[in-house]
Amino acid sequence: MRSYLDFEKPVAELEAKADELRVVAESSGSPALAKEIEALEAKANQQLRELYAALTPWQKTMVARHPMRPHFRDYLDGLVEEFTPLAGDRKFAEDEAIIAGFGRFRGQPVCVLGQEKGSDTDTRLKHNFGMAMPERYRKAVRLIELAGRFDLPVLSFVDTAGAYPGIGAEERGQAEAIARSTDACLSLGTPNVAVVVGEGGSGGAVAIASCNTVLMLEHSIYTVASPEASASILWRDSGRAQDAATNMKITAQDLLRFGIVDGIIPEPSGGAHRDPAAAIAATGDALAAALADLAGLSRDEVRERRAAKFLAIGRKA
Fold first, then answer.
1. pLDDT tens-digit map of 57-85
2. How far, in Å, CA of 163 to CA of 181, rounded?
3. Are 284 and 70 in contact (CB under 8 A)?
4. What are the CA-CA distances from residue 33 to residues 12, 46, 100 (Å)?
5. What is the value of pTM for the model shown?
């Protein structure tokens, strides 16, 4: 069953009409109806391409949050074999906002970290909507250090609105845990690659995305705070989220231009939720290319290249 965003209404109407005619055609077998259905589908596809070629930052935010967009578990199942999850931070508890462990990516042993939002009510509650507690970041640090010890690259899949802002998280040292996770990423002596597959929100994203190579899906977003939160801070009006999204430059295209990310992964026409398999395959190809570019570097070279990347952000040529 398709789920349409507000700006996709023209496409929804065309596809609904095609579906209605398809039901009639199945009972009548009319060749004329088949041609009309084909024309409607072609028109809907063209409209979809035109819409997605000119999305506003706020529309991209809506696409990045689409409930049917593939989540980390989908990428994990599609790209990683022999995955063995590891749980707990060995200090407090297990936090299922992140799934982490070891497996094989196209035959190569890797450490994998991914934020999972969940796909229905039960799994969203289980994974806390992808918003992590401090123990999640400490678990990430534990696995990153293991990866460094055994000379394994690290793949990070980012999809979170941000770190969990509750009192309990603050009491257990949320900021310190995020900082240590960021430091672990920056200090790692093996290549690490991050890909923002949906939302890349605040320190919750940076904590596992401070990598040699940072990629974004075409319609994902990466931001210091959600547009709603930013509008509340700047104008004390969360209703101005669209203005915030536009002014904050949160799209993959803007961030590539500023040198904050290193590449954009094209999405299928109509977004990753329209063809998850194609989006997952394209992500796999991009990750493989990024790892190949970093292959053969010494531990010092990996660290130096990563440091140079982040130190260059914001500098004028």
1. 999 999 999 989 999 999 999 999 999 99
2. 12
3. no
4. 19, 20, 51
5. 0.88
